[in-house]
Amino acid sequence: MATAPEAGQLIALLLKLTNPKKTIEIGCANIMQIIAIDLDREAYEMELPIIQKANIEHKINFIQSSTLSALDELLNENDNRGIFDFAFIDADRVRYQKYHERMLDLVKVGVSMPEECVKETMKPNRQHIIEFNKFLASDTHVQISQVPI
User: Fold this and answer.
1) Architecture of domain 12-111 in CATH?
2) Which of 26, 42, 68, 149 is a Cys-bridge partner for 89, taking CB atoms 3.0 to 4.6 Å apart?
């Protein structure tokens, strides 16, 4: 399976905007410092020629394991809590909720830019958007949806 081109473009844009240094991927392959987890090594090896051509093999730590076991192992090492800037899950949809629960402890949670980095002129508008998003999340008139892009 491969990610749809429009999803790949959106992810590439998000990565450029957020400039993550460390990411975790369920299913293979991506771009920066990566821990890639997949039970099927062939999925990784299928991408390996592209990875090698892009000269980024040194940035990828492939873990051949069941995802839940690998995530639990990462969580058992407390140094891994909150260290990932980005997570991409594209495998085994039956277990997405279990992956999500573990990712909450592995990925930094919060806004993409720390408050101290926001220009003073942008802070009022930013706060309005944050408040609006909180309002939408609690508004029973609105159905929030995860879009598969």
Assistant:
1) 3-Layer(aba) Sandwich (3.40)
2) 26
